Amino acid sequence: MKIVGDRTYVELPGDKQHELPPLLVHTAPQIKRLDKVVDMAQDLIENEVLSPAVFAGPELDHERRRMDLAIQMVEQYLTLVTHWQWGDGVLEWIRQCETTFETRIDLRPYLRPDVWPHAGRTSFVNLLSDKSVPTDGVELHKAVGLRLAFRQPPPMSCCSDQFLFYLNGSVASTAYDKWAQMTPDPVSSLPPERFHFQVVAM
Description:
Strand content: 5-15%
Low-confidence stretches: none
Distance between the termini: 36 Å
């Protein structure tokens, strides 16, 4: 066992680099009809309780502000979908990694919670961070948290403006933290130099 800072790492015997399954992710939001998403955003603006001050002034300014707000909501929604897609890819990758560990005699003991030091599912998320996987601004723990909270990306019509602008980050973080606590402590990290995998953008 190796300790670096406040983290402990599983110490694997030998110096062999272990190959893990590729991480497959949709890096761009999979939206069929962007115009429908914009329409839904405009419907949300009409139906949500917004401050009258937002739309004060001449009618032309009112329409411009309404469109600006709709565009901002669509951007927030596309960011949410991108995070969800990353989370979906990461969770599927973790399942494949667990299968890989189970089928390999040299790796099998490190996922058993009755053996210490052992790795947990969050160890794979940490491994992605330790390997500096390029995510284009996607926060992996929030991405996984969103996927844990939603089996499918929620449609725009199900999201409130408050959720899109303020609440989705805390919902995702809470979901991830709760999920992380499901593996009994102490959980050790996987040494990044001992594992190799490809990231495939789909």
